[in-house]
Amino acid sequence: MPISTVKLLIDGEFVESRTNEWRDVVNPATQEVLARVPFATADEMSAAVAAAKRAFPAWRDTPIAQRARVFLKLQQLIRDNIDELARTLTTEQGKTLADAQGDVFRGLEVVEHACSVGTLQLGEFAENVAGGVDTYTLRQPLGVCAGITPFNFPAMIPLWMFPMACVLGNTFVLKPSEQDPMTPMLLADLAQRAGLPKGVLNVVHGGPDAVNAICDHPDIKAISFVGSVGVGTHVYRRGSEAGKRVQAMLGAKNHATFMPDSNKDQAINALVGAAFGAAGQRCMAISVGVLVGEAKAWIPEIVSKAKQLSVNGGLEPHTDVGPLINKRAKERVESLIAAGVAEGATLELDGRQPQVARYPNGNFVGPTIFSGVKPEMTIYREEIFGPVLCLITVDTLDEAIAITNANPYGNGTAIFTQSGAAARKFQNQIDAGQVGINVPIPVPVPFFSFTGSRGSKLGDLGPYGKEVVRFYTQTKTVTARWFDDETVAGKVNTTITLR
Fold first, then answer.
1. What pTM was computed for the model?
2. Which residues contact residue 11 at a Cβ distance below 8 angstroms, ignoring those fewer than 6 apart?
3. How far is Cα 240 from Cα 254, in angstroms, rounded to an integer?
């Protein structure tokens, strides 16, 4: 049976690429080749941008309510097809079916929020700011925008981007990860079925050449990126130098602080779930647990809880930890575990080479826990992006805050405590974008903004929420004065005042 090819979406049509460069889309649990994805040619990249540019004037002038209705239809289509989306996502990405459904659902919430565009895009108005003068602002779309998305959330992160950009009147070129492109293409198909006019959304595939083409193309006005530090820094610099707006959400090393007064069972469950869910392939995963005071005695119970997690294929029932995305990722995680041992950390739980009977060729690494971790160790400095938890013990909350703030990343953090005073001190003094209080992965709901900081973010505006409305629109300020026919002309005024 021939292997299917992933299409490009250009100007409303799903087309076969003319490229000579292809990559296999591989099931990470079985190594089965699911499809072949093209690396779009330079002409195909240009055609996608040109289609978006042609579509922009009419889409910009489409009434807000009409744009919103398209996304009302899209959210219903996503709901109707969530099982197919989740199953495809699990097959090509590896995460558990339940986690894949959550991936789709968190993206769906952003689509639902996009339907509120009627209030999101409101400007401001001040009457009679000077003699007969009114001032007001308009939030107008930029034009062609683009998004570059990572492998770990192939539904949620594309849905962070194109629905908000498009509902605000922009057109869009999406470049999803070449490692799991089938889920984004299903979403693109649903968007077409929902009534997006041709050219409003275009999807291309590729590697570095496609990324650079997006950064360089003069007709692209803004780029949204989520992914690794290296690629994100490159996109931010190259895109900014080309005069574009760029938001880049990068890597993380999220710390969670555990106070001895916290609800121990709830805290341990939260830590283990946040550290090992999605095989640790989340930018908001808790990869460092900071145990304060007597909480250091919890280490055996943390290890015991982690041992209970089931490592298996993502489509199998009751699976907790699926495979990593590819063999290179598995080898990298295993090499970092070896480095942790070599540098003197205590390996409390070794997840290397787990036995997964039905999937002997899968990219599996089981839950792995180190204690006695020091800031100078490789496993602490590197974003492992795998199911590896580093445990640090300190005596006081002040020490926990200092350690967390000394780390260069600032994506998210959390504290577990029953003390309001401790929680308030933590939220005020910690230097991270998202803060959880007894919440391990504090990703905000879509009407708030995702606000990573420091080494986890480049650009001043985050994805979704109020900040992304600002990112995808240009504020135009209008100052107006009207005269009736009986107004007597006065003398010429050469001063700056309007009075």
1. 0.95
2. 47, 48, 51, 54, 55, 198, 199, 202
3. 28
Rounded distance between C-alpha atoms, residue 45 and residue 39, angstroms: 10
pLDDT tens for each residue of 384-408: 999 999 999 999 999 999 999 999 9
Tally of residues, the chain: 499
Q: Residue 297 has which token pair?
A: 């005695």
Q: State both tokens at 51.
A: 């289609």
Alpha carbons 192 and 21: distance in angstroms, whole number:
27
Contact 292, 419 (CB under 8 A): no
Catalytic residue list contains 283: yes
> Residue 218: what are its φ and ψ, rounded to 5°?
-70, -20
Instruction: Give the pLDDT confidence of 432-449 residue by residue, as tens digits.
Output: 999 999 999 999 999 888
Residue 244: what pLDDT?
97
From CA 409, how far away is CA 333, in angstroms rounded?
A: 19
The one-letter amino acid at 69:
R
What is the arithmetic mean of pLDDT over 90-110?
98
Antiparallel, parallel or unpaired: β 368-371 and 388-394: parallel
CB 198 within 8 A of CB 12: yes
% of the chain surpassing 90 pLDDT: 92
**DSSP at 6:** P
Catalytic, out of 115, 215, 283, 390: 283
pLDDT of residue 490: 67
Q: 357 pLDDT exceeds 70? A: yes
DSSP 8-state assignment for residue 321: B
Q: d(Cα 41, Cα 205) in Å, to the nearest integer?
A: 9
Q: Calculate Rg over the CA atoms of the chain.
A: 25
